[in-house]
Amino acid sequence: LEILDFEERAKDVQLYRVTKQTQEIIQGKHQKKDEEDKKRLENQIKQLEENAQKRIKTINETKQKLKREIREKKLESEQLETKARQLQNSVDQRKQIMSLKSNTQGDTEADKSKKLKEIAHKRKLLDIAKQQTEEIEVLRDELDRLRARTFPSFAHLHNKPGYPDEN
To answer: Where does the record place the region Disordered (predicted)?
Structure first.
């Protein structure tokens, strides 16, 4: 029985079609090819890790820069808000002074020239108040614009060359 088994195996080996891959396995080239593939893949992994570290470093530097710019813009924004509040207080005080002046003076015929001067002065103060109100509005618009600029935009990072997987 064993002899028949061996004879059948020998016949199978003789009739077996040898392919290129089978020849490589028999000659041991297959192992060399696997080792070369392994080395190539290891080098590729190493390169990808290095690129990832460089990108992470660049992104972190950009992040720190943007944080610093945000702090600066917040400080500038607070200063503008303080100035706007001071100007608004000044306008309110002037309005209050004008209302007090108009209430304390009487309406006599002898004081007509004085009344005209008061009206002119009142008009001048109103013009100043209006001008300061407009300046406050301009400062508020500037503040809103500066606040809008503090939000980061990453569009400029997308177009930077040097990242091999982004082409």
So the answer is: 86-115
Q: Which amino acid is at 63?
A: K
d(CA 39, CA 31): 12
Q: Is residue 97 part of a domain?
A: yes
**Residue 26 covered by a domain:** no
Q: Which two tokens stand for residue 155?
A: 């569009």
CB burial of residue 41 (10 Å; 0-12, 13-18, 19+): exposed
The tally of domains found in the chain comes to 1
List the chain pLDDT tens, one digit each, 167 residues.
788 888 898 888 777 787 777 777 777 666 677 788 899 999 999 999 999 999 999 999 999 999 999 999 999 999 999 999 999 988 988 888 887 776 655 555 556 777 778 888 988 998 999 999 999 999 999 888 887 777 655 555 555 555 555 54
Domain that holds residue 126: 45-151
Q: Is residue 29 domain-resident?
A: no
The two tokens of residue 34 are: 């696997």
Tell whether pTM > 0.70.
no
